């Protein structure tokens, strides 16, 4: 995978991780309200999808196959 195609995914991962850390650190000892818990779950889900997409793209490049799924 070229750096150009990998960078947007890595940037999104970085942004999601930063938001997750901010959410967790600002509520240490206090706990999250229901909206914040829902946001944290959404962040975790988005991160899982980003990491999966990155692994799939890297595997596709390594084994010479094309990723047929659209981004999203």
Automatic annotation (TrEMBL):
InterPro entries: Uncharacterised_Rv0898c. It holds the Pfam family DUF2630. This is DUF2630 family protein. It comes from Jatrophihabitans lederbergiae.
């Amino acid at each position: 995978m070229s750096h150009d195609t990998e960078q947007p995914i890595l940037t999104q991962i970085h942004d999601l991780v930063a938001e997750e850390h901010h959410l967790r650190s600002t509520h240490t000892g206090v706990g999250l309200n229901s909206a914040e818990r829902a946001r944290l779950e959404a962040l975790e889900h988005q991160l899982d999808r980003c990491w999966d997409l990155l692994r799939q793209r890297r595997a596709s490049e390594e084994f010479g196959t094309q990723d047929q799924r659209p981004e999203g």
